[in-house]
Amino acid sequence: MCNTGGSPERELTYLTLLQRQRAAAVVLTGGAVESEPHAAAVSAKLRKLAEAGTRVVLCGRPPAADTDAVALTFDNRGGARALTDHLIGLGHRRLGYIAGPEERTTTRHRLEGHRAALEAAGVEEDPRWTVYGRYDRRSGHEATLELLRRDPSLTAIVAANDSVALGACAALRESGLRIPEDVSVAGFDDLPFSVDAVPALTTVRLPLSEAGARAGRIAMGREEAPPGGSLRCGGS
């Protein structure tokens, strides 16, 4: 088990390590880094793994160009659009957005879905309403305080994931604001701990456990790869 902590350099280091250890299979999870040099380096590592007979499965990240890796992807754009559509349907027109790291594909896709919902509803987006950060609680707390500083009239905050959303809730309470009476908060991923949020957290459920189990079965050769080598896993 190798945890990159979101570091592109660690990702390459661990892929090299697994290659040297002649791993029978590798499952690579999390959003990919979009910078061209890093993407090319990862693709080269994945090709070398495949050439050595290693099964490679990408889970929750887009297909890697020029590799034989199987990709199980999520509809991050569609989920984010549905989430923002829900908030707009409740009457919100001033929505702050806490995004993840700018270089991640997951961040870009979710932000694109959010913006598509705003555009479809005729809501003009203010550049001040988007703040980038990490996928953790502390980032959500800091970003929310920054959003409130930029525009105290925001009525909703859409967070990059549930951890970020919990940080946002804490910052709002510290600022004397009620949830959802003053500001609504929404997350993403439906992580296990989100069920304990008070009030209940509106979020998008991705089939993380199911996708992980399927990735494991494909990696071990217990399940056939999807036609074309890519499959989109649903959410709700």
List the helices and strands and how they pair.
Blueprint: H1 8-20, E1 25-29, H2 36-51, E2 55-59, E3 70-74, H3 76-89, E4 95-99, H4 105-120, E5 130-132, H5 137-150, E6 156-159, H6 162-174, E7 184-186, H7 208-219, E8 230-233
Parallel strand pairs: 1-2, 2-3, 3-8, 4-5, 4-6, 6-7
Helix pairs in contact: 1-2, 3-4, 5-6
Largest sheet: spatial strand order = 1-2-3-8
* Average residue pLDDT: 92
Q: Helix- and strand-based class?
A: alpha/beta
> What is the count of DSSP helices, taking H or I runs of 4+ residues?
7
Explain the overall architecture:
Helices cover 42% and strands 14% of the residues. It is built from seven helices and eight strands, in the order αβαββαβαβαβαβαβ. Helix 3 packs parallel to helix 4 and helix 5 packs across helix 6. The chain has 236 residues and is of the alpha/beta class. It has a four-stranded parallel sheet, with helices on both faces. It has a four-stranded parallel sheet with strand order 5-4-6-7, with helices on both faces. The radius of gyration is 19 Å and the shape is elongated.
Task: Sum this structure up briefly.
Helices cover 42% and strands 14% of the residues. It is α/β, with parallel strands linked by helices. Helix 1 (8-20) packs parallel to helix 2, helix 3 (76-89) packs parallel to helix 4 and helix 5 (137-150) packs across helix 6.
Keywords for this entry:
7 helices; alpha/beta
